Amino acid sequence: MADVTIYTTPTCVYCKAAKEFFRENNIEYEEKDVAKDEQARDAMVEKSGQLGVPVIDVRGSIVVGFDEKKLLELLRIK
Questions:
Q1: Which residues face 57 on adjacent strands?
Q2: Residues in CB range of 66: below 8 A, 6 or more apart
Q3: What is the pTM of this model?
Q4: Which helix (H) or strand (E) holds 69?
Q5: pLDDT for residue 2
Q6: Does residue 66 contact residue 17 with C-beta atoms inside 8 Å?
Q7: What angle do CA 59, 31, 68 make, to 5 degrees?
Q8: What is the pLDDT of residue 77?
Q9: What is the pLDDT of residue 76?
Q10: Across the strands, what pairs with 7?
Q11: How many domains does the structure of the chain reveal?
Q12: What is the rounded distance in angstroms from the CA atom of residue 53 to the CA atom of residue 7?
């Protein structure tokens, strides 16, 4: 199971940027499309209190939006 879950929608530019960041840094992630998956949407809102995407769960720490600095810190990437 991946340490990172990203809640996305197909048209989200910041979601695409976050996924590219994960690929560039060889970070495995699980993607949940909240436009299609109602349970994932509900889980995202419960975790973050937000309807906006991306919402990124890194081992239980929630990042709303694509905050590269925070992700680097949480993933301990130098």
A1: 5, 62
A2: 14, 15, 17, 18, 21, 54, 56
A3: 0.93
A4: helix 68-75
A5: 63
A6: yes
A7: 60
A8: 72
A9: 86
A10: 32, 55
A11: 1
A12: 6
Each residue of 16-57: pLDDT tens digit?
999 999 999 999 999 999 999 999 999 999 999 999 999 999
CATH number of the domain at 64, please: 3.40.30.10
69: domain range? 4-75
**pLDDT tens track for 47-61:** 999 999 999 999 999
Q: At which residue do the structure tokens 């499309």 appear? A: 33
Instruction: State yes or no: cis peptide before 10, omega within 30 of 0.
Output: no
> Among 41, 6, 32, which residue's Cα sits nearest to residue 20?
6
Question: At 37, which amino acid appears?
Answer: D
Helix H or strand E segment including 64: strand 61-64
Residue type, 49: G
CB atoms within 10 A of CB 22: 19
The 10 Å Cβ neighbour count of residue 72 is 13
